[in-house]
Amino acid sequence: MAKMMYRDAVLTTIAEEMERDENVVMLGEDIVGGMGTAGGPEAIGGIWSTSTGLFGKFGADRVIDTPISESAIMGAAAGLALSGKRPIAELMFADFIGVSLDQIWNQIAKFRYMFGGKTKCPAVLRMAYGAGYNAAAQHSQAVHQILTGMPGLKVVMPSTPADVKGLLRTAIRDDDPVVFLEHKALYGMKGEVPDDPDYMIPFGHARLSRAGQDVTIVSTGLLLGFCESVADKLAAEGIGCDVIDLRTTSPLDEEAILDSVEVTGRLVVVDEAPPRCSLGADICALVAEKAFASLKAPPLSVNPPHTPIPFARELESAYLPSADKIEAAVRKVLSYR
Amino acid sequence: MQLSRDALLRAYRQMKVIREFEERLHVDIQTGEIAGFTHLYCGQEAVAVGVCEHLSVEDKIVSTHRGHGHCLAKGCDVNGMMKEIWGSREGLCKGKGGSMHIADVDKGMLGANGIVGAGAPIAVGAGIAAKIDGKGHVAITFSGDGACNQGTTFEAMNMAVVTKAATIFVFENNHYSEHTGYKYAVGTNGDIASRAEAFGMKVWRGDGTDFFSVYETMREVLEYVRVPGNGPAAVEFDTERFFGHFEGDPQRYRGPGEIDRIRAERDCIKKFRDSVTQAKLLSGADLDAIDAEVLEAIEESVRQAKAADRPTAEDVLTDVYISY
Question: Which residues of B touch A67 (CB under 8 A)?
Fold first, then answer.
């Protein structure tokens, strides 16, 4: 086990997979950084430091620095994947799916189905998402609720460096298109990471990060850590929480959620995207439909409000689900007897 | 360069297959037996065939909503296509794609596309792959005078130049983007090639109603793009669309007698026939024999499509993912 940051888990996994398979190529804006400048290639090395050194190691054919052209980046990933390559396309900010959505939604996600199952599109679409940097309404969003609703895509949201390692490797080796959502506020998170160069985590298998008998808390990404701190606090009071890290929102590990709720009878989903048609609403509905008899309280979803993401520190803090809001929701479901 | 007799016969047959395939669909669609939206390629056959006769299966093409001609020219199976358009589970895409989504990746045909302008970025990716592989293969995107106005096409042209992708932008100007004239919608006074040139590409122009013009132009374009390191190129072919934007289009935008005139004066198949018979390269009888054989092949494809298995409700659920 080595200790490394979430961002380094991204970088090292990409490097290992590019080393292993020459068909793996990477493309995106400023992933090399400095092209065409006095500073020269790698003057920057990617704004998230998730591609540092790859250009020098693998060359311009496999580390393709693109213009600011998100549709063309996603479209090129589609064309590369249909031509036998395994592209890793980076959107600098997940919010930019708006510019490139046709290629993700109408093209990459649908090729296999539209073409009668006779092709594959092994593209990984990496994107940095999430609030916490006061980056305001167009650079802070959690976009999983949009992409999870698209048949044909798999959607991954790692919460720890170890999960980045295992899930990104699975994504790169997967023959289906995978959206890999990296939380900006987790890039600096440190954690133990397995050394095994083939360490992979299968999609659709949630991780139980805290175990308890009284409440089920379901989350992933940045907010998972908030849920864990709430669970730790309540444990001191003798309240036990199952904290389920979904890891992937598509496929969804329904079984892990239902099995837990059958024991606890209480559910709180903590979701970084707005409430309408959300992951939280979806999981509450799932539990209401399939574990109704086990429920001791109405399932709750903690989401930001139905607003764009505000800029000022006070406003962004008020917008995001916090440990306090999660704790209040847990106490609310516990209040039903 | 003079084409061999076999090459001429093959080119004529390919154009004729597209023509009869589309003419037959035009008739059959009116019976209501074929579902969905269909956009016919009639009139533009010389472009698809003049381009694809130069290509191997290793070369890729990305097509449009008006894609039947490109698919047939690239080698997609006639019967498989007809079955697909009729919605059979024996169709090329098991009845899940239909007219607008026919694809056969093994033949280098990366898909027709229902979204105008979506193909160009995909062909940039395929062109980058060809560049990486370094074997002189190319990727071609067909775009009309409608798609040329999409931002995706602009992004793709710039990205192809920047990455030196082995991509060729073939613009087919059939004078109508859906129901709007190109002189209105293409802001460069209707000139598409000059726009591509402004992105830094070498460009060519040709007569899309003349197979020989397309074929010879594409020989030059391909000679250039197949050289590793040269990067992309673009070519604009002026052509004609004999039918409406979609089947059922009342075409009230056409001028008086326009369709009769373009069919009489700008029909690429008539021009080919006149040209090769006058030059005594092929005889009328040679071509008549192909006409009869193709008509029978299309008739057979319709017979097969009507008799083919229909998909079932269970088929809805398959082919979304490889594993899930």
Answer: 155, 158-159, 162
